[in-house]
Each structure stands twice: as structure tokens, then as C-alpha cells.
Design a protein that fits this description.
Layout: H1 2-18, E1 34-39, E2 42-51, H2 54-59, E3 71-81, E4 84-85, E5 94-99, E6 105-109, E7 120-121, E8 126-133, H3 136-140, E9 147-149
Parallel strand pairs: 2-3
Antiparallel strand pairs: 1-2, 1-9, 3-8, 4-7, 5-6, 5-8
């Protein structure tokens, strides 16, 4: 009997190991410096700087000439609201990912123009905006409907909760 239980446990473990995203669908191992986005059942992670004060959000990535490929900045607002971003004094082209209070992506502004003062509106109330290098959203399939796991997302509302 013991051998059968071990075989069943091994079979279950192998099934989970070869079924893409099944384990990731349940929750994410969250950290403050990590934004995990789930596109379908495939997670992608970005090491992020947090901008959660008015001064930090106003500064954003202005003046930055480069950013590591797997990096970004996560802007966090206390309450959901419509926002507009611009690229003033930002020489990098970025993808802006607008995210609602449940962690669901509602809009992606891809390949923004460096140093452009044209406002880029969220189009809906958001609580988070993730800025990543231009082209990363398309490369990883990040589009409306993708979901963010981060410790700042209220677990009672989270579409993709932290474990």
C-alpha cells in the first residue's frame, strides 16, 4: 500500500510540474520589490522600485537614461482614480501598464515617446501603474486582462493573490 501512495504522490507531482502555470494560477510568492504579472497562466516578474508618495510619483523615471530589462517602477496610489502620465524629461521609451484595484490590467500604453509632454490617460480608475522598458509588454503578452500580484493589492480583492 505504501508503494502505491508514493507512486500516486509522484504522479501528482509530475503532473503539476509539466502542466504550465497550474501552480502559478493559485497564488504568487510576493515581495515588495517584485511585480508579478500573470498573462493567461504564465507569470512574468519585474524587479521594481516603488513610487508611493506624491514626490516619488512626480519624479518617476525622469532623467533615467537606461533601465535593466527585467526592471520597472510601480506607482501605487492610496485609492483608485483616473490618472494621466507623461514622458517629460524621460529619455527612455516605456510601456505603461495601468492596473485597477483588483490587480487587473485595464490599459497598456506601449512604446511611449521619450521626452513627450502629451498626457497619457489611464482611461479608467486605477490604483497602480507599472512602467517597464518599451516592448516588454508585447514581448510578454501583457495586455488588458493580465493580473498583478503584489503585497499592496488587497487580498480580499486580488484577481491574482499573493500566497
Amino acid at each position: 500500500m505504501g508503494c502505491r501512495l508514493e507512486i500516486r504522490a509522484l504522479s501528482a507531482a509530475l503532473f503539476l510540474a509539466v502542466t504550465p502555470g497550474l501552480a502559478a494560477a493559485e497564488g504568487a510568492q510576493c515581495r515588495d520589490d517584485l511585480a508579478i504579472l500573470r498573462t493567461g497562466n504564465q507569470p512574468v516578474s519585474f524587479t521594481v522600485e516603488i513610487a508611493d508618495s506624491s514626490a516619488e510619483r512626480a519624479q518617476g523615471l525622469m532623467g533615467r537614461r537606461e533601465m535593466d530589462e527585467g526592471a520597472g517602477m510601480l506607482f501605487i496610489y492610496e485609492h483608485a482614480r483616473e490618472v494621466a502620465f507623461w514622458m517629460h524629461d524621460t529619455p527612455l521609451s516605456l510601456d505603461m501598464v495601468f492596473i485597477d484595484p483588483t490587480g487587473e490590467v485595464v490599459k497598456v500604453a506601449a512604446n511611449t515617446a521619450p521626452n513627450d509632454d502629451t498626457p497619457i490617460p489611464s482611461g479608467a480608475p486605477v490604483r497602480y501603474v507599472l512602467e517597464i522598458n518599451a516592448g516588454m509588454a508585447a514581448r510578454h503578452g501583457i495586455e488588458p486582462g493580465a493580473q498583478l500580484a503584489h503585497p499592496s493589492v488587497d487580498p480580499a480583492l486580488a484577481a491574482f493573490p499573493c500566497e
